[in-house]
Write a structure and sequence with these properties.
With 425 residues, the chain is of the alpha/beta class. Helices cover 26% and strands 26% of the residues. It folds into 2 domains: 219 residues, P-loop containing nucleotide triphosphate hydrolases (Rossmann fold, 3-Layer(aba) Sandwich); 182 residues, Rossmann fold, CATH 3.40.50.
């Protein structure tokens, strides 16, 4: 399988627009795409899936490690082409220039070339030193920049000027350009809106591709023969009920795969539809999402008695971010409207305009995850902490329930995660 990494000069340069437009174009050419997203983002993969018809998986060298990223790529080798959307700018990671978690570090780990997305609005000759600088710095890590995609281009003449200027200075070629009139992607406080909330954009008239150049800019994916994890089934026969709907939709595909690989039987229920968590479930997982957009519906959910009963029975429950918000007494949305929630635990949450927490989190147990939220938790009683990250939310613990704002990456600490779901019980 061949592949490419689409990296931006910086956040907001049109990286996701370029990714979706290319995926749409390639699919129309009959090319089977394996979509991926660099970093811990939940929303972009949903857009990838909507455009390609295939599940998009996250790749993150900070949270997952190099070997797991390569393993994820290898497991999707039935496609013709891997298209990896980067995160932030090419060199932006946890720290330094091209450090862990950066798009550059992922391209290095995967052994794939980078196609650089540039916001070319108002730009002509300046694209050369920009491309030269990025190419030179990437080469220090053994990463090749093999092509350029210009976004927000004013006209065909502008595109031709950019292409000719790059060629005249022996820079990576312009493989595609996107008109400044391209459809805009709808956004909200955590990023893009969900794809099922709007019509999928049609980039047909806005994207212009030199297909030969584009495919020539891709590289062959070479996955070394590495031993898999010594990760025997720790959850054999256990039934895990997972909340999954528009309020609980932030789910890493690799977490679902890991639970099944551990021998767990997965069952899904919807708090928005008032479906109860199955009484036969050995454990419950409440992922994050957008409960703040569904306060009225959730306030009357018939799901709550089953969750309270599960918790009081001492059965394992893991709640992440929005899933945690469901378990409190009230949720105050962006409009200041106060909605009653499950009431299983003595706290409330309140939305705010600015981010209240952001960054990778490493628990002292070895578990790893990521935190990004616009709400705060107000405790109405003293509750023990559930976790001990070096920084970030310590969460709350009650009986066998663990809640926090952190979205965990289950394969990072298999034994720890399995214990959260009651392994050996």
């Amino acid at each position: 399988m061949n592949g490419m990494v689409l990296a931006g000069v910086q956040s907001g340069c049109g990286k996701t627009t370029a990714t979706l437009a290319l995926m749409q174009f390639l699919r129309a050419q009959g090319i089977a795409i394996a979509p991926f997203k660099a970093g811990p983002d939940f929303l972009d993969p949903l857009w990838h899936q909507a455009v390609t018809g295939r599940i998009s998986c996250n790749l993150d060298t900070q949270m997952m490690g190099d070997q797991h990223c390569r393993r994820q790529l290898a497991e999707h080798g039935d496609a013709d082409l891997a298209v990896i959307e980067g995160v932030m700018g090419l060199f932006d990671g946890r720290c330094g220039v091209g450090g862990k978690g950066s798009t550059l570090d992922l391209a290095r780990a995967a052994g794939l070339p980078v196609i650089l997305v540039v916001d070319a609005r108002g730009m002509s000759g300046s694209i050369v030193p920009l491309a030269a600088g990025f190419r030179s710095e990437a080469a220090k890590s053994g990463v090749t920049i093999s092509g350029i995609i210009a976004n927000r281009v004013g006209s065909e003449r502008h595109a031709a000027l950019l292409s000719d200027t790059l060629a005249a200075h022996d820079m990576p070629p312009l493989v595609a350009w996107i008109s400044r009139h391209a459809p805009a992607l709808p956004e909200r406080h955590l990023g893009l809106k969900m794809p099922d909330e709007t019509c999928l954009p049609d980039f047909t008239g806005s994207l212009h591709v030199d297909q030969a150049r584009l495919l020539n800019a891709c590289g062959a994916l070479r996955i070394p023969d590495e031993p898999g994890p010594d990760d025997g089934p720790r959850l054999s026969g256990r039934s895990i009920a997972i909340a999954k709907d528009a309020a609980c939709c932030f789910i890493y595909q690799a977490n679902l795969d890991w639970l099944e690989d551990q021998g767990a039987h997965l069952h899904f229920f919807s708090p928005l539809k008032g479906e109860p968590a199955p009484t036969t479930a050995d454990a419950v997982w409440l992922p994050g999402g957008y409960p703040e957009l569904h306060g009225e519906t959730l306030s009357a959910s018939a799901t709550w008695p089953s969750l309270r009963a599960h918790i009081e029975a001492g059965k394992p429950l893991l709640a992440e971010c929005g899933g945690m918000m469901l378990l409190g007494e009230h949720l105050v949305d962006h409009r200041g409207k106060r909605w009653p929630m499950c009431g299983a635990l003595p706290f409330s949450t309140r939305m705010q305009r600015r981010p209240a927490g952001l960054g990778y989190r490493d628990d002292e147990s070895g578990a790893r995850g990521h935190e990004f939220h616009h709400s705060t938790r107000i405790a109405n009683a003293d509750i023990p902490a559930a976790f001990a990250p070096g920084r970030g939310d310590r969460g709350i613990s009650y009986k066998n329930t663990r809640c926090s704002y952190i979205h965990w990456w289950f394969p990072a600490a298999p034994a720890v995660t399995a214990d959260w779901f009651g392994a050996g019980s």
